[in-house]
From TrEMBL, chains A, B:
Any GO molecular function: FMN binding
Organism superkingdom: Bacteria
One Pfam family named in its UniProt record: Flavin_Reduct
Cofactors: FMN
Record-linked PANTHER family: FLAVOREDOXIN (PTHR43567:SF1), FLAVOREDOXIN-RELATED-RELATED (PTHR43567)
Key words, A-Z: Flavoprotein
Gene3D superfamilies to which the protein is assigned, alphabetical: Electron Transport, Fmn-binding Protein, Chain A
Species of the source: Chitinophaga caeni
Protein name: Flavin reductase
Family from the record: Belongs to the flavoredoxin family.
Residue ranges annotated for the Flavin reductase like domain, each copy included: 17-169
Lineage: Bacteria, Pseudomonadati, Bacteroidota, Chitinophagia, Chitinophagales
Keyword set includes Flavoprotein: yes
Length: 186, 186
């Protein structure tokens, strides 16, 4: 990994700008001395303010317990250029491999939570567990985004969107249709 | 709308192929004589089998009550070529406008639910309300996909992915990385 981004704080209520299009993301977490990172495709924005994101994290993943116990994680947005790392992280189990070492992931302390922030990713959304009502039945965590950092450039990164069966859709251009919208708050 | 698709039944446990990449979708519903259609961007796949999809549908939307009362809807996948219809449907309120007439939406009966299927969309996912535990607190419906129909061609349609503020990301190519995956069931 050799991405070097200059990132700045980004309004948490605008997290949708980067998450709503549906890119695959990397979720990093830590509990005590254990830290891990996983690949995630099943999540959705749920609210602007508080800034909520609902995430499926299977209990079979090592990250599940780290996040449940620590009550926090970071949702990191990788670019398509990181596709081999994205897939590798999804292949490996945190219990048998130190994925940070194996994939040479540089990381920093988060601003608001106790979980590693992935430096090579385009954006980082620090998350605190907000509601665990669906945790037992569906492994569905509802997080509040407590801090966001986004790269200054490019404005919109090329992202990878998973279809299952090893297939990824690669994001294309972003176009403005602002003039067609009656409500400006959507 | 002039799309003419030849659609065939599609395995419901593979709904992710088209929904996981995160395209904006059109949700159609009906209760008694009232029917409606809305634009939706906040949803996620939650399970393969049963095939579950979690969806945020604000109570302020006319569709909310139709879906809550009828317990079903259809998630229709429009292509980018329908962008003006997608935005128009998002602008209008079902209480004051018949969106089916205004946007000349052709529709058919569903196979498994009492809700209109949008013929001009690339794919249709018929949904039955599966769990309403988060309905009061978050307006979050968990649906089971009970039947899916997908166009035979093209294999992957060009879709629109919303970023907020009138901006859409347009989907690009689909590439296979199957060889890099250790587990073939992901």
């Amino acid at each position: 990994m050799k991405n070097v981004y200059r990132k700045t704080a980004f309004p948490v209520d605008q997290a949708r700008t980067y998450l709503e299009p549906g890119p695959i993301v990397l979720v990093s977490s830590q509990y005590g001395q254990k830290k891990n990172v996983m690949t995630m495709g099943w999540y959705t924005v749920m609210e602007f303010n508080p800034s909520l994101v609902g995430c499926m994290i299977t209990a079979a993943n090592d990250s599940f317990e780290l996040i449940r116990k620590s009550g926090c994680c970071v949702i990191n947005l990788p670019t398509y250029s990181m596709i081999e790392t994205i897939i590798g992280i999804g292949n490996d189990h945190g219990s048998s491999v130190d994925k940070f070492k194996k994939y040479q992931l540089k990381y920093s302390d988060a601003h608001t939570v106790a979980a590693p922030v992935l430096d090579d990713c385009y954006a980082n959304f620090e998350c605190r567990l907000y509601d665990k009502k669906l945790l037992n039945t569906y492994n569905f965590f509802i997080f509040e985004v407590t801090y966001a950092a986004v790269a200054k450039s490019p404005k919109y990164p090329q992202t990878a969107h998973y279809r299952g069966s090893g297939l990824f859709m690669v994001s294309g251009e972003t176009a403005s249709y602002k003039k067609l919208f009656k409500r400006k708050d959507l």
